[in-house]
Amino acid sequence: MGNFVVDSLGLSDVLKMDKRQLLYQILNFGMIVSTALMIWKGLIVMTNSESPIVVVLSGSMEPAFYRGDLLFLTNHRDEPIRVGDI
Fold first, then answer.
1. How big is the CA angle at 83 (ends 81 and 86), to the nearest 5 degrees?
2. Is residue 51 within 8 Å of 29, Cβ to Cβ?
3. Residues 1 and 41 placed together within one structural domain of the fold
């Protein structure tokens, strides 16, 4: 039963690694995650918005934006928003 759990989770390859390979894999994964977080935080600072990238989830914004569209938001605005800006 225990071998089935290890094999079904794909942990058999991890258990066969030596310590150096395992450490390398953990550090590599950590670098990928930290790079993604740095890019996200950089976008937050550059756009001055807590959510710089959003996805349109419903059709309520049609015909300007359709479901599934990616929107890049920013709060850098010196002039007031007028009708027709979007």
1. 75
2. no
3. yes
In terms of domains, do 52 and 66 share one?
Answer: yes
Asked if 25 and 60 sit in the same domain, the reply is no
* 26 & 9 share domain: yes
Give the separation between CA 63 and CA 66, rounded to whole angstroms: 7
Residue 73 has a pLDDT of: 86
Q: How confident is the model at residue 5 (pLDDT cuts 50, 70, 90)?
A: low
Give the per-residue pLDDT at 1. 52
* Full domain range(s) for residue 38: 1-47
Is the Cα torsion angle 55, 59, 63, 66 positive or negative in sign? Answer: positive
Question: What's the domain count of the chain?
Answer: 2
How far is residue 60's CA from residue 63's CA, in Å, rounded to a whole number?
A: 9
- Per-chain mean pLDDT for the chain: 84
Paired tokens of 17:
């690694």
